[in-house]
Design brief:
Dihydrodipicolinate Reductase, domain 2; 21% strand; globular; alpha/beta; Gfo/Idh/MocA_oxidoreduct; nine-stranded mixed β-sheet; nucleotide binding; 12 helices; single chain; Rossmann fold; 14 strands; 2 domains; NAD(P)-bd_dom_sf; 35% helix
Length: 391
């Protein structure tokens, strides 16, 4: 198989999310890891190169050295995609440099440190054939795709109400995680940006709601808090939302809800029916018609939409989860990169993978949530971005 040549920025062997990206990229045998900048600590960077690369000399000291030396290689050997899995502060610098060098980018969310930087990336991409993918993992689940298709088909009728929740407990003080490596940078405004909880998980919840409902959030009223003492950024959020059709919504995001693991769930209520999906039980989708018994939709059956089938890997009754969902995005991005080798494509044509449109929407959601909360919980209007523009 002609694999896509991948470079990793950040995500050395000890990094949780870096390991997840590697698992996802390698699952379908579509990528070969050829180079990287795995750590700012050059000893750790060298050790990671020895462990992860066939040629450890391609473990570079910086993104700039990577671009310079990879660009000097024959086209058939040089890196094609870089995956950015560093703290938020460096996303824009690395993505911008890669785009300028003509290298495709797959980036952790949020895409940038500020909305202004996301707009700069958009301008760069408009002038470039480079593809840009964003790691909104949860739309990679088959039944999230199915939920969206049932909304689009009108099975729920007019959307009236959306309740989306993403609750965790790993930043609760009683769990003694405040000083962990993962927690420390996410709670540091110089590394994470204006928000911890909303920027880390609230933006996932917003993206999931916009994707399934096939329409953007247009207004929000946010109440963010640092529930635990001595934190500069939020660890808990409650946000009222309005969608393009004026549907009402509630978004809950929390990293201090003791007892919660990774509780991402969504309920969508229309004029004809409702639906319910939970990330911790991802192979089931509950459809709730107003005049019939509720139905449980399961993965692996022929009655599912083509979109859900495309992201389904195993027969019914064989559970699929987070890594598989992530791998679905990586594989879809690889297909787009391979197509771009021989065809002219635009940045918004990344085979359904979230991209710069979702990056803009996400950064605006984060910054507006903070602004709404700090201004006394005022309603704020958002620019509308078409959530389907990256098909």
């Amino acid at each position: 198989m002609d694999k896509v040549r991948l470079g990793l920025i950040g995500g050395g062997p000890e990094a949780f999310i870096g390991q997840v990206h590697r698992y996802a990229a390698f699952m379908d045998n579509q990528y070969q890891l050829v180079c990287g900048v795995f750590s700012r600590d050059q000893q750790k960077n060298h050790e990671a190169g020895e462990q992860l690369l066939d040629n450890s000399s391609r473990a570079y000291s910086s993104i700039h050295e990577l671009i310079e030396k990879e660009s000097a290689l024959p086209e058939a050997q040089r890196v094609e995609v870089i995956a950015i899995v560093t703290p938020n502060i460096s996303h824009f610098e690395f993505a911008s440099a890669a785009i300028q060098a003509g290298i495709h980018v797959f980036c952790e969310k949020p895409a940038t440190f500020t909305l202004a930087q996301s707009r700069q990336l958009q301008q760069q991409l408009e002038q470039s054939p480079v593809l840009f993918g964003l790691a909104h993992t949860y739309i990679g689940y088959p039944l999230v795709q199915e939920a969206r298709q049932r909304v689009i088909a009108g099975e729920l009728g007019d959307i009236k109400k959306v309740v989306v929740e993403y609750s965790q407990d790993w930043l609760a003080a009683k769990l003694n995680n405040q000083d962990s490596k993962q927690g420390s940078w996410r709670l540091d405004p110089n590394m994470a940006g204006v928000s911890c909880c909303v920027g880390d998980i609230g933006v996932h919840a917003a993206n999931l709601a916009e994707f399934i409902c096939d329409m953007p959030i247009t207004r929000i009223l946010a109440d963010l808090a640092s529930v635990e003492d001595n934190r500069q950024l939020d660890d808990d959020a409650a946000i009222l939302v309005r969608f393009k059709n004026n549907a009402r919504g509630v978004l809950i995001a929390s990293q201090i809800s003791v007892g919660e693991e990774n509780n991402l769930s969504i309920r969508v209520y229309g004029s004809k029916a409702g639906l319910h999906w939970q990330q911790q039980q991802p192979n089931s989708l509950r459809i709730m018609p107003g005049d019939q018994p509720a139905q449980e939709i399961r993965t692996g059956f022929d009655y599912l939409s083509d979109e859900a089938k495309r992201f389904t890997r195993t027969p019914a009754g064989h559970p699929e989860g987070y890594i598989e969902a992530f791998a679905n995005l990586y594989s879809a991005f690889a297909d787009a990169v391979k197509r771009a080798r021989t065809h002219s494509v635009k940045h918004s044509n990344a085979n359904g993978v979230p991209g710069i449109t979702e990056a803009l929407a996400g950064m605006q959601f984060i910054e507006s949530s903070v602004k709404s909360s700090q201004s006394g919980n005022q309603w704020l209007a958002l620019d509308t971005f078409d959530p389907g523009s990256n098909k």
